[in-house]
Amino acid sequence: MIATTEISPRDTVHAEPVGIARSLGPSFAERAAAADDSDAFVAENYRDLREAGLVEAGVPADLGGGGAEIAELCAMIKELAHHCGSTALAFSMHTHQVAIPAWRWTHQKAEPVVPLLKRVAAERIILLSSGGSDWIEGSGKAEKVEGGYRITARKIFTSGSPMGDVLMTGAVFDGDDGPKVLHFGLPMKSPHIKVLDTWRTMGMRGTGSNDVMVEGHVVPEEAVALKRNQGEWHMLFHIISMIAFPVIYSAYLGVAESARDIAVELAKKRKPDAHVIALAGRMDTELRAAQYAHAAMIAAAERGEPGPATTNEIMIGRSLVARHAIAATELAMETAGGGAFFRDKGLERRFRDVQGARYHPMRTGAQQEFAGRTALGLDTVKTF
């Protein structure tokens, strides 16, 4: 067993998150290949993250957390990705589920989010996201029963599921005035909730992004945080887009940056020729484009103006980070030469991991339609 980095638990709550992530990185890097080879969730890394105080890093300081802002959280996730892409991506899902209510408390004084944030800070609970599989359309069925709603659903891509405490999700209720998506948290210890062992993938194999089956759990009426029209943008989703996607795409940018560093070290071991020099130049150019696009996403989030215009900027950035991070990693494979084909170098894992950047919302077609409708002054309420 690999020894974990010794960090005093509560003393690190107000430390710089990226510095803590960097101190944990070597241990995470040592475990990364084993998790990838066996499709095993990075449970030991999650225990270290919890012990180090990073679970509550994004909780506002006045509610007991670390008070980290969006740029700090992105830097933390990106640093984790340099060492283990799976840990970074899975933890980005918890991190953005903390950062969204934190933003709502800090900027809107939304009282309903306070109990959840205080729980994260005090108990270090792990939040799960059904995110991309639910998006604007929602999924699952909510049936009205006495005192609440009985939920039946299968939530896919639930990253971190083996160690999650609360699943932040929703289900569709067919009411008299049309289908509504209800939003709520589900306790993962419920006997009506089961994690299915389904995560067998090309990359990001250690994220534990299993399907979660919900069969008959009843959500009390008072636990429903939001009811919205199905298939239409709601302001909450503009807030989600503004905060979540810079955090999530930090993981893919970090994977691409680490691929670049590995490629350079491998290339330096051979006598450079004009072809390798050109490849290295193209690689760094693609990577810089991804970095610039990601910086623009963070800047848009920091302006704190949720709405269609900000969502458009965020989603353009999301597409550009994905495109250029994938291209940079492909060029890293070529720059490194034949050595990149060997698993022990870590490059082929990063090549596989970065492919996940393609699949989060809004995917290319929807994003381009949203951008085009925005440019032409057309309605985007049902474009997602």
Radius of gyration: 21 Å
Strand content: 5-15%
Second CATH tier, the architecture of the largest domain: Up-down Bundle
Can you tell me the CATH superfamily of the largest domain?
Butyryl-CoA Dehydrogenase, subunit A, domain 3
Which spans have pLDDT < 50 for at least 5 consecutive residues? 1-14
Class inferred from helices and paired strands = alpha+beta
Top CATH class of the largest domain: Mainly Alpha
Within the CATH hierarchy, at the fold level, what is the topology of the largest domain?
Butyryl-CoA Dehydrogenase, subunit A, domain 3
What is the overall shape? Answer: globular
Distance between the termini: 45 Å
Number of strands: 8
State mean pLDDT (0 to 100 scale): 95
Q: What pattern of helices and strands is seen along the backbone?
A: HHHHHEHEEEEEEEHHHHH
- Order of neighbouring strands in the sheet with most strands: 1-4-5-8
Helical fraction equals 40-55%
Number of helices: 11
The number of distinct structural domains comes to: 3
Pfam family, one: Acyl-CoA_dh_N
InterPro entries: Acyl-CoA_DH_C, Acyl-CoA_Oxase/DH_mid-dom_sf, AcylCo_DH-like_C, AcylCoA_DH/ox_N, AcylCoA_DH/ox_N_sf, AcylCoA_DH/oxidase_NM_dom_sf
Protein name: Acyl-CoA dehydrogenase
GO molecular function, one term: acyl-CoA dehydrogenase activity
Provide the descriptors you would attach to this structure in a database record.
single chain; 384 residues; alpha+beta; Butyryl-Coa Dehydrogenase, subunit A, domain 1; Butyryl-CoA Dehydrogenase, subunit A, domain 2; 4-stranded mixed beta sheet; 4-stranded antiparallel beta sheet; 11 helices; 51% helix; globular
